[in-house]
Amino acid sequence: MMFSITAPCPGERPARNDAGQQMATLCHAATTIRTLSGMATDPVLNPHPDRLLPAAEPARSVARRLYRAVRDLPIISPHGHVDPRVLAENIPFTDPTALFLQPDHYVTRLLHAGGVPLDALGVGRGPLPAAQARAAWRLLCANWHLVAGTPVRYWLESELADVFGITRRPTAASADDIYDQITAQLAGAGHRPHALLDRFRIAFLATTDDPADSLAAHAALAVDPAVTTRIVPTFRPDRYLEAGRRDWAEAVDQLGVAAGIDTGSYPGFLAALEQRRQVFRAHGAVSADHSHADAIAVPADDPAGLYRRARAGQITPAEATAFRRHMICEMARMSCDDGLVMTLHPAIHRNHHPGTLAAFGPDSGHDIPTTVEFTRALQPLLARYGTHPGFHLVLFTTDATVYSREIAPLAGFYPSVYAGAPWWFLDNPSAIRSYQQAVTEIAGFSRLSGFIDDTRAFCSIPARHDMARRLDAGHLAELVTAHRLDEDEALDIATGLVTTQPTRVFKIDG
Amino acid sequence: MMFSITAPCPGERPARNDAGQQMATLCHAATTIRTLSGMATDPVLNPHPDRLLPAAEPARSVARRLYRAVRDLPIISPHGHVDPRVLAENIPFTDPTALFLQPDHYVTRLLHAGGVPLDALGVGRGPLPAAQARAAWRLLCANWHLVAGTPVRYWLESELADVFGITRRPTAASADDIYDQITAQLAGAGHRPHALLDRFRIAFLATTDDPADSLAAHAALAVDPAVTTRIVPTFRPDRYLEAGRRDWAEAVDQLGVAAGIDTGSYPGFLAALEQRRQVFRAHGAVSADHSHADAIAVPADDPAGLYRRARAGQITPAEATAFRRHMICEMARMSCDDGLVMTLHPAIHRNHHPGTLAAFGPDSGHDIPTTVEFTRALQPLLARYGTHPGFHLVLFTTDATVYSREIAPLAGFYPSVYAGAPWWFLDNPSAIRSYQQAVTEIAGFSRLSGFIDDTRAFCSIPARHDMARRLDAGHLAELVTAHRLDEDEALDIATGLVTTQPTRVFKIDG
Amino acid sequence: MMFSITAPCPGERPARNDAGQQMATLCHAATTIRTLSGMATDPVLNPHPDRLLPAAEPARSVARRLYRAVRDLPIISPHGHVDPRVLAENIPFTDPTALFLQPDHYVTRLLHAGGVPLDALGVGRGPLPAAQARAAWRLLCANWHLVAGTPVRYWLESELADVFGITRRPTAASADDIYDQITAQLAGAGHRPHALLDRFRIAFLATTDDPADSLAAHAALAVDPAVTTRIVPTFRPDRYLEAGRRDWAEAVDQLGVAAGIDTGSYPGFLAALEQRRQVFRAHGAVSADHSHADAIAVPADDPAGLYRRARAGQITPAEATAFRRHMICEMARMSCDDGLVMTLHPAIHRNHHPGTLAAFGPDSGHDIPTTVEFTRALQPLLARYGTHPGFHLVLFTTDATVYSREIAPLAGFYPSVYAGAPWWFLDNPSAIRSYQQAVTEIAGFSRLSGFIDDTRAFCSIPARHDMARRLDAGHLAELVTAHRLDEDEALDIATGLVTTQPTRVFKIDG
What we know:
The structure is a homotrimer. The first copy, chain A, is mainly α. Chain A has a domain at 193-505: Metal-dependent hydrolases (TIM Barrel, Alpha-Beta Barrel). Chain A contains 22 helices and nine strands. In chain A, the strands form three sheets. In chain A, strands 4-5-8-9 form a four-stranded parallel β-sheet, covered by helices on one side. In chain A, helix 14 packs across helix 15 (317-338) and helix 19 crosses helix 20 (461-481). In chain A, 57% of the residues are buried. Chains A and B meet through helix 5, helix 7, helix 16, strand 7 and helix 19 of A and helix 17, helix 18, helix 19, helix 20 and helix 21 of B.
């Protein structure tokens, strides 16, 4: 046996200098050897320090150097779905099911596809009784093979190993032990949200919020001396722009109440939106986020008339669509006026399975991508605002074909357009690599938004950013070893992608 | 010279243990050396034991180990187009043109594109006179460069080398020799269909059959003690669902005769389809296969009225389309009832060139893919049956963009949906690699159907499955060397993909 | 220090034999070492001899051998946008801004996206005053990071190093020095167009010309003994086929004048087009080039009626579209008659930003791709002419999804259809690799058109062809190392792709 290891290796995040990386590699080898030689009786969980980097030399060594330079830099998270109340109140997580499983439809959809009923996983329910939470966790561990090869597996492995020091691969046999280890740690102060914000080195975190929200949690966070992370809201007005929704009139009334402006007429509606954007900005918001069935943005001839018909409950579906497409133009106009970055991620068929929606609510794993079109759809908007100084429009999609055909060419001409990170079903390594190649070869690195984690699973934030940093390092290493970039340039780019780039694109210093 | 080889290496399939693999590698090197040193006067045909595996270490060694574990496992072929009569009657093949060229529009289309007339290749004709068969073979050999880089070339090389021990590269000079060698072997008992079924280790083989077919060949095969392969029919009702076809009324009458049920009315039509599905199941069928212009499945308001108008010859094209889309829902309902797996591969523009269709019939190489959409198209069907216990829906496409955007997300939520193998124009290595990555990273490995060869060329079955096993081994090796899977997991997955997975998805044990 | 280098390495194109390549590699290492050891004070520009080749062995060595075999073969450029008057009059270039920046919207769009105003770059203007030209050049150099990772960067590096011997990386600090070095060289005889045609070893060069053009420049070039490159026009009739354009009637009148045929009626219009094609053929043209909003080709029922309405200014947009789609069929018919190769590259949203169009004219960097469809669109045309002897139809697209789904399958059946090189926003290495794989695995290598540079930037022609040769060598090396091709075959293919293949597809010997 080549290595003489007498103490168990810590399940800690790899240490932060080269010696630490070498130690981590030795630990990895030693753990594996212990396993192979029968010293452990069940499979290990032991994420490799080089995971996701190119496998072969010369690219691996270059990638290692690039990754090492960015691995421990603070996290900037400009878009996600963490609940600000959990952060404001520093509510402890109770158990791994509440932490990893219930809120994360990325995980539960894969188990569901494999035959596990969603109710057994506590989807769409509040806190589970202890026995049910443990039973749900056992289902995840016993079905660990269902996530093999997916980013879900990568995130969970990183979280288990790096955040909780777990060293056993999840199986039916190890489920209870892992559950107990995590639950015990969660009871301590070191794993409450504020402590994790520090430990994860999250410098900036944007949540996603309703325009009528009081932003009380954000107000509390802003003055809490225990929170050093800058946590800000994001303006998400989707439901106010869909005049065909059954709850639209009521929503618009609430918006008026929140803004203190009568939304009975179109000018009042616009004024209320503008007022709430100002309130969001005053609470630190840097962006407004939009997701509709398509990306079409066309000014309407008579928006006030459409609004009137909508208020009267007389708007047709076609008119409601026309009104929404008009309002996307208006939101761009407001972004030019007030400086909020506009993000757009259209073309998801939400709640594809009505039975699951009825039983478990939205965000239960059956939002399915559809094709999308940007070139023609955004032309009227970009004709007006595409070269407006300070306007930033970040485009996302789950239709991978659009990156090389439309997004990169648009971002490669318009100073306002940026290519958002691939995300959702495209957050897997091969799609990220395709995106990196397609966008940067057409538009250069300066047109990228930087990574967006878009997560509802708080503990997965570092794992997701770590994946992005590894994949960036690998991509840049391949450019270096093909002699398309010098290594000093690659180092500048890798660093910029997690520091200056998102700061500039999302106006975080602004 | 490093190797001292005194006997010619056999053109046999590589032997089945490690020593055999090493021997095969030595043989390959020796043959090449003989060629380079002038000992052979024309180019060799010498498929490399590592072909299609990753070229560089460390992935190649891992891939070799994974491939070696699955290389010789029996073949499960759940969908293809071999003629069951040829198998039942154990009809000898006469010559390589009849075996490799005439029935395989993958090959003939490439020669046609290169300027070889289809009639010179015997396309769409029965047995050729000996002189014409030989002339056609010469055309293939003289134009060998036209297939360089394609899977057709890979399959043919494997078949020539592994099944017939050919060691000369096809050229104008070697054509007659190869023709004679193969023809001589075909005359022996060892190359008749029953012998090849054994030699190819085909455990399960599904053919594709008309619902009105008597299934006499299958009945004979089932009781033939010389046939150990389980050979079953597949229910393919396309032409009965297309009420706008000129021959539809006649076809529906024949269906009624076959079922012994009056198809004069819609209820009778449904009953006849259900009855024939039962007969297919009684003959061992496990699936029903569907291919139409699109994937849309929407229940019609008045299907009986549409049927009545169709019977009266009064149905409009739009109504015929509505009826077909309704019937796809009905076929899903029947699959829920009787358990036949439903496979769907829409969106081919069949018989693109009318002149070729008129002269040579269908399946003559000019079926061209078009775009397809699944997310919206299948929503009504999946809303009804997507979580029905035991319903299996396997989706295929030749539009590669759909795998990551739609198929994998659907298969990653619905327990009923599986991602079929890429196929047809997508059966090339780079498309298969894209498919492997896109689908498994989004939906995991458990949502794959396993490989489908879909071939009309009986002798190409092992070569096609061998290609898939090599590409699976390569893909998994890349995940292992990027530390995304442990090798024990990769081994389980590689084995499962050719054993338990197709058995489970296609209910072959059922 | 390992290398003892006493003389500076020349910035010359790598020498042409193996010893030369070794010398080039040594020079590259030595220059880098000088830089790292502080002997140079600013970053070097030093394109690596192996750039763009596969990074890892065994593929790199094979790729080097293949590349070396084709590196110095003459250039065949069947489609591009060099101004024939510049060539005919051998007009000297004045400065690097006029040479590299002003005419090349690939470069200026990236700077514009990065915040550099187009007017500061001299876009859409004639010769700039010296101070402005120098200021524009400084903007490029100071923003060199904006092109990192793009093909623009690759082309510019190759041009600066190979054509002008520049050894400093462009930066704000080096801008003036580089500007002065290039300007000085441009003043000499060795960098005038005729000298560069020789130095670039351009054997064949097609320009793009209006059907009513007098072709005087081409006539002069044909009899100029100082020009050994064969320079020919290309027939580009787009604006005559768009009957809805405001300037259409006037254009058609001019066409009639050029042809000496009355275009007042549809038969006269057809006759004038046919006559001008003959004139182009007499001046050496080998192809006719077409780019419209879609690829649809459908014969109209009453084209003469549509023409009459268009002449009377009464044609509707829908009728104008129908007329254009009809005329695409007619152009195919004329190609069958007169032998001009037909090239088709549809589906670009031209002049996406009206403000930029108004200020800077067309071709100013905001032509954005859209989706395209070929299978159904071209069916009527291919039904008529797809198997016509001698008809050649070369298909291009910027929608990468179409290559595997439609173009390769069409080219893999129809003897007339060839897959054009990926181009425009798809001229980046990863898109070219996807194209190479998708097309050749489906249709073989013989269905490729060979590389098309499509450039307006004369000096970039060798850099673009060099990139294509490197990427071809890399692609073929990967097939060789995966044992899918023997190296002798790969060598034949690599050579053919730059010699016999474009010669045959574009009928250059004809």
